[in-house]
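Input chain follows. Return structure tokens only.
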Amino acid sequence: MQKKVGFFLFLVLFLSATAAYAKPKVLFIESYHSGYVWDQELRRGLESVLADKVGLSSFQMDTKRYRINQYAERADLAWQYYLEIKPDVVVLSDDNALMLLADRLLRTNTPVVYMGINNNPRMYAPLGQNITGVLERPLCKRTVKYLKELLPIRDGKVLILLDKSTTTEVFKSSVFQDKNSLIISGVNTDIKLISSFTDWKVAVLQAPMHNCRAIVIGLYHRIFDRGVHVDSEEVLRWTSMNSPVPVFAFWVMSVGKDKAVGGMVLDGEEQGKNAGKIVLDILNGIPVNTIAPVVPTQGEFIFSRSELDKWKIRLPRHIKDHARMVE
């Protein structure tokens, strides 16, 4: 009898100690999918901060490859996963996740940290009580400004080429005020949002006909060929190999051999690291409504050696001295 009582007390103490030292649960809901380089960068940054401090689960909404009329179903599946996991903190990456889930999460007490948000987050929900996070701001104006130092643009144009998505619609609205052209740093800059691979190819090949001296590719992950999703790496590779003018980029994932030349680019790891720091602050007891949204350090010069050689582009000393070089 004494042995049974002793074992019972041991079991109670063991379970109590296990509960006391259980890791907090963090649910990472991704707008996109694990094969998307941007998502890989976000996760690396997030995990580098949270490491072994939390139990991290994830759900991929995969909205780059699903049609818009399927978004609600993907959001419902993400919500069901949230209800099953019962996390201590939710991390949402990119605009679609926040847009589709914010209203439901606002009706809970679960702290929410967003990252990779291009729009004003208040466009998706009246934030403040249990939601904060990290904003993303593509460096359009700085990119065009620096292109003037790399290329003989003179009276020519720059073409910004993107797919059609929530993020790119926000970009066009906020930077171009929904216009198709804008003068940036004295340079005529056109913007095109395209969903068809055929139309994308035409825009690239005809760039010189429209006096474009360079193309800056933004996002190219919602491109379709007769209704079938085209792998983003194929779009990027085709653009690099066939463009009659140099191709630059806004994001580091697009830079490299048979990709873009480079530019002043953003890195998803910085978004993830900043989101991870906010998660730790929340777990350490800091109220969510006292944590202001943050914008990480803005951009880094990254260039591809092979693409610079291909286009015979020489970097000015003041750019080269601060640039990181890749293949």
